[in-house]
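for the recovery benchmark. tokens below, seq after
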């Protein structure tokens, strides 16, 4: 594969990668780094603006306004890490007395096993499965924190949409997640994949440190405006095509 990529590389004007680790992987696969440009995915912040009062999620699930709600919206498949996420939630129940609910939205082949695991772990009071949903903004607005537990990511639209909606983030340190969540951005915490102690400790910090959560929420919206706003993505993409035409 690397040999064929090196041969084909001579015919490429420009290549777009959506994250820095993606660029590194392309180079490892034989492509020339000189013509690879990183252009982050972008969203329209105006599309995700609004307030908690607009959401019906808590009313639907019978959750109090004071309850801490975490959201994970992804297909129930092996690479999405739901087994690890549920193990982390079990660990969290042993670490904190603060009431919380993890809302899991989505369907897929591993939905039933995840539901069985939650039952076996005794998580009925703090994990809610709500199935496939099209009202993702409604879910964001009803939550306090977005959680990503994936093993594979490029640059997740769900994460930057959640941030645009005002949610701080916990994400696994996989793929392009570190381009979004890092110390400079201050919008959340990165955790080690398949390490329930790492994930549960991050969740505990958000639960028990409201000031930290508030700073991350503010920085999430700021980070989207500065790095993942749709017009910035369009301009950067345009510049890549200009560079290709100028070769």
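predicted aa per position
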């Amino acid at each position: 594969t690397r040999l064929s990529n090196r041969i084909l590389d001579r015919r490429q004007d420009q290549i777009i990668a959506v994250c820095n680790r993606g660029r590194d992987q392309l180079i490892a696969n034989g492509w020339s780094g000189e013509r690879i440009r990183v252009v982050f995915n972008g969203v329209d912040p105006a599309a995700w603006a609004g307030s908690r009062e607009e959401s019906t999620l808590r009313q639907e699930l019978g959750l109090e306004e004071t309850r801490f709600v975490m959201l994970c919206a992804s297909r129930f498949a092996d690479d999405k890490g739901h087994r690890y996420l549920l193990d982390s939630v079990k660990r969290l129940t042993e670490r904190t007395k603060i009431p919380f609910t993890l809302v899991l939205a989505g369907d897929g082949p591993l939905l039933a096993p995840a539901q069985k695991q939650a039952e076996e772990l005794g998580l009925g009071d703090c994990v809610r499965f709500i199935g496939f949903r099209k009202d993702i903004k409604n879910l964001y607005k009803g939550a306090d924190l977005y959680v990503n537990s994936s093993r594979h990511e490029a640059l997740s639209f769900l994460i930057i949409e959640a941030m645009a909606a005002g949610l701080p983030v916990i994400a696994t340190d996989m793929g392009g997640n570190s381009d979004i969540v890092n110390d400079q951005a201050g919008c959340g915490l990165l955790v080690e994949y398949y390490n329930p102690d790492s994930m549960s400790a991050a969740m505990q910090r958000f639960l028990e440190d409201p000031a930290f959560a508030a700073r991350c929420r503010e920085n999430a919206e700021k980070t989207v405006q500065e790095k993942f706003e749709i017009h910035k993505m369009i301009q950067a993409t345009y510049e890549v095509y200009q560079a290709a035409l100028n070769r």
